[in-house]
Amino acid sequence: MKIFLVGGAVRDELMGQDVTDRDFVVTGSDVSTMLKLGYTQVGKDFPVFIHPETGEEYALARQERKISLGHDGFQFDFSPETPLETDLMRRDLTINAIAKDDTGEYIDPYNGRGDINKKILRHVSSAFVEDPLRVLRVCRFKAKFPSFKIDDSTFEMMKSMIFSKDFSALSKHRNWQELSKTLQYQQPEHFFYCLTDLEFLPKSVIDHLTVLTFEKETSLIKFSCMLHHPDMLSWVNMIFSPPNEYIFLASKFNKYKNIYNKIEAQELLNCFKDLRAFTNTKWIKLYLQCGHALYGKDLDSLLLPLLEELTRVSAADFPHIDPGPELGEAIEQRRLEIITRSIDAI
User: Fold this and answer.
1) pLDDT in tens, 185-226
2) What is the CATH number of the domain that holds 36?
3) Which domain holds residue 16?
4) Number of helical (H) and strand (E) elements in the chain, helices listed first
5) What gap in Å lies between CA 227 and CA 52, rounded to an integer?
6) Contacts of 143 by beta carbon, 8 Å cutoff, 6+ apart
7) Number of domains in the chain
8) What φ, ψ does residue 93 adopt, rounded to 5°?
9) Would you put residue 70 in left (φ > 0), alpha (ψ -120 to 50) or beta?
């Protein structure tokens, strides 16, 4: 039984980047042996074992065979005789097909270190085409490593895959997982540029992508700043089906982003109401984060105190008006007067 560090941890170590997650491959072992050693098994068709002390993931070296459409359409063989090189051959890119043993020696049968030095994203073998999700994974790695170039033959494989039945069979949930990971990077726009180069994302849509230099913004803020244009948002929703909060914030930010150019009383009041700001400040604060990221303007010190003042306007201020439409109009009018006064004082 031998244990090897594999995948992204080895790649990032070789590139001098911080290693956050470590995955291991085990050769010469089987399920019963791993369980006897105290590992906890997760998954059935593709068993992964959790180390009893570190919580890190260990997988048996495997061979796999394509049996049906989609990302999950594989049959796996976890024989103890499976060599490490066979397991590495089934991986997506050469830079992710490097292993390291317990002595610190690298096992690199597909020249991943060479491609790291040359800054090339290259498929390991012809098995690449069997997993359609790898198209999005390579686009994601293009965003993670913008200075890397996709190998020409790999790119042609991706083009042949992206309009296939296999790719169409991918669930939007799996697609979103790749985009969600991409949004953690500082230059996520390269994910979309890659899809445009593959002629999957129309050029008429990519023109509406907003490109920013991100630092500490959350994925939700990045998404809303980059993809708020209706055409871009519609396309992304069709392919990736992001969580509702992503669609909500991006669409509302698009609707009210002109406030950052010129504040008009009625539009600002509508913004507060649409973002449910009179009952919960969550969305208005997120909206303000988007504005700060996109325009570099800080409206917090103006709008948040103003919101507090507007929230204090209530039915109690109009004891002579009975509950109903007239009362609602009176409250709205008073709030518009307060906003107008605040704008004039700027």
Assistant:
1) 999 999 999 999 999 999 999 999 999 888 889 999 999 999
2) 3.30.460.10
3) 1-112
4) 17, 11
5) 42
6) 182, 185, 187, 188, 189, 190, 191, 194
7) 1
8) -115, 150
9) left
